Amino acid sequence: YCSSFTSEFDIPYISYEPEEVDFGEKAANSTTVENVHIEGFSLTSSLEVTVTGTAFTTTTTTITAAAAKAGVDIPITFKPTAKGNYTGKLSISSSTDIIEVDIPLTGKCV
User: Looking at the whole model, is its pTM more than 0.85?
Assistant: First the structure.
């Protein structure tokens, strides 16, 4: 639900797309990058970005409130080293604005 109504009681939140990132099947030691697009609304502080899970990384660690308001892509890199299934998550949070979002990451090395 999104509303264009504004008031002095705006609640900080972020929208993001996609809701999960599936890298599909990749060869060992191959590198694939997918982006997660976020937009922030009524934010008062920066967002912290972390990635967990073997084979998943990002170069983005902080997003300013202004950048989030304008919309930003967070690049997620998947580089598996051995055959198998991989899982992880992209976490976006702000303790000041009380926001925490976890986006599942999956991929398979064949």
Answer: yes
